[in-house]
Amino acid sequence: DLADLAGHVQPLGNVGQIQPVQANVRVRWSVDRAVQGADHVVNLVAILHESGRQKFGSVHEFGARAVAEAARSVGAGLAHISALGADLNSPSGYARTKALGEKAVFETVPDAVVLRPSINFGPEDAFFNRFANMARFSPVLPLIGGGETKFQPIYVGDVAEAVARSVDGKVERGQTYELGGPQVLTFKECMQELLAVIDRRRLLVPVPWWVANIQASILQLLPNPLLTKDQVLQLREHNVVSEAAAKANRTINGLGIQPQAIAAILPSYLWRFRAAGQFQQRRPIADR
What we know:
The chain is α/β, with parallel strands linked by helices. The protein contains 12 helices and 10 strands. It is 39% helix and 12% strand.
């Protein structure tokens, strides 16, 4: 039911301003119907793991080209959300098809704007929420590959602002922008920050790559897997803004946006994972 899937976004605008239209990027005619009458199209469709007919290639590459062709057919502008780490030569299917999607977009709409965010954090994120929930039940948290992989987490609100500026024509078109937050943190540091916010003591256990690969080969069989072999491949590469993007000023700061730090945002939604919720008095840092 479309109302169940998108009904929650309708109160975010005035009455009648937001109108959900069901579409499937693998079905071209449904994409054409969705962009009818649009002045600008924003493609946010992606998957973190493959399932059934939802394959990386069909969603990230074929779907990206379908959306770009549909936008071009109605003369609409296009903002395409990719991912930091997109690479045509990556061993990861996710990262490789993300890069192929970017290629398809620029081939179809040369003046499109491509945004590559690092890990997003915010009220419904799939990273901090997932590990915070795990910390409620497990005495340990795993550090894949030792937890040395670097991330540059960016607040979803800052990514939304970048999208809004591209729609308003305040962003140079035909370019790729890499979006990272103000801090570069290792996987281990992300977990430490998380535990400080939810005020829980948990053992951080390094998991060697070969063990993570074995675990992923089993976990990826689940309907909503905690870890897949492709994600292990992704975690072998740092997920930070490149020197080339920083030098060219193709970053969140280059768009005139001051990114939010995770310490300012995480407590606003992770309080629910504290033992006593929002009423829990956090211990002094020295006592943790």
